[in-house]
Write a structure and sequence with these properties.
It contains 14 helices and three strands. The chain is mainly α. Strands 2-1-3 form a three-stranded parallel beta sheet, with helices on one face. It holds the Pfam family ChrB_C.
Length: 284
């Protein structure tokens, strides 16, 4: 069977031929022509047009052509269903749909830049989608990170982040506050980037949801605030300012002093003197 579409493919026009050859017709012939020639050549060659306007195999509402192929041919493979939002997000610039969508777009754009011949581009693209299918079939739960603390954070997010937001604070936010505090006590630099890369969510979505339940602060601002709170506790101990800066995760004392003053209006040494004075006044 022959299938025809526009030239210079990137996402859908490689993902769909991959799907056709792997699950619908392994001997399918894929033809790329200039956009204005797709329909005329489809008639001449008796080929089925796809991923162009006003044909059956195309975008429908918010779904892309890959989604239509899955529905039309009743392909229920769980791995294909995992791939669908990744491909849709990459093809429609909706990178919030899947954490992998932006990566697929970047790889596809680079591939199209490197290979200008459409047949060669399709050949290389088939390898990309074979790899993505293997990930979706066997590896989608594997995590790259080796840090036990990051695994713990991911476990909390994976358990609760997908719950529909309600007016009350969700359990994941309550537990995450405790986890963050525990890790600050052991000088862990908690990174939103590291967490979002290993979760099946987009960093923008994670950041947006985080601020709703964490004092209207961004992830970074909240972590800095917690570090300053911890530093205030440590100012009442024997630790030097350099040691406190290290124990609260700042790169050096200068950085610690600058952030501390921004949050409290005083530098750490002044704040410590006031704490000590207040303590003496209380003991009188």
């Amino acid at each position: 069977m022959k299938w025809i579409t526009r030239e210079h493919p990137k996402i859908d026009r490689i993902a769909c031929p991959w799907l056709i050859r792997r699950f619908i017709d392994k001997d399918a012939e894929i033809i790329y022509v200039p956009a204005e020639q797709v329909l005329p050549q489809a008639k001449v060659l008796n080929a089925t047009p796809f991923d162009i306007p006003d044909v059956e195999y195309s975008h429908h509402k918010d779904l892309c052509t890959f989604d239509y192929f899955l529905s039309k041919h009743q392909l229920k493979d769980p791995a294909l269903l995992k791939m669908a939002p990744i491909i849709r997000g990459a093809d429609t610039d909706r990178h919030d749909l899947s954490a992998q969508a932006a990566g697929l777009w970047a790889i596809s754009a680079g591939l199209a830049y490197n290979f200008r011949n459409d047949e060669e581009l399709l050949e290389k693209g088939m390898l990309i989608y074979d790899a993505l299918y293997s990930w979706a079939s066997h590896l989608y739960t594997d995590k790259h990170t080796q840090s036990p603390a990051e695994h713990l954070l991911m476990e909390i997010f994976n358990k609760f982040i997908r719950q529909k937001a309600k007016q009350k604070i969700p359990d994941w936010a309550k537990e995450l506050k405790e986890i963050i505090q525990d890790q600050l006590d052991t000088n862990l630099n908690v990174s939103l980037g590291d967490v979002s890369k290993e979760l099946d969510i987009n960093p923008a979505y994670l950041s947006r949801e985080f601020s709703r339940y964490f004092d209207n602060l961004s992830f970074g601002d909240y972590i800095r605030k917690k570090r300053i709170d911890k530093a205030i506790e440590l100012l009442q101990t024997h630790y030097s300012l350099t040691e406190i800066a290290y124990l609260t995760g700042f790169s050096d004392q200068s950085h610690f002093t600058r952030i501390f003053k921004k949050h409290t209006g005083k530098n750490p040494s002044e704040y410590r003197k006031e704490l000590q004075k207040g303590k003496k006044d209380t003991n009188r």
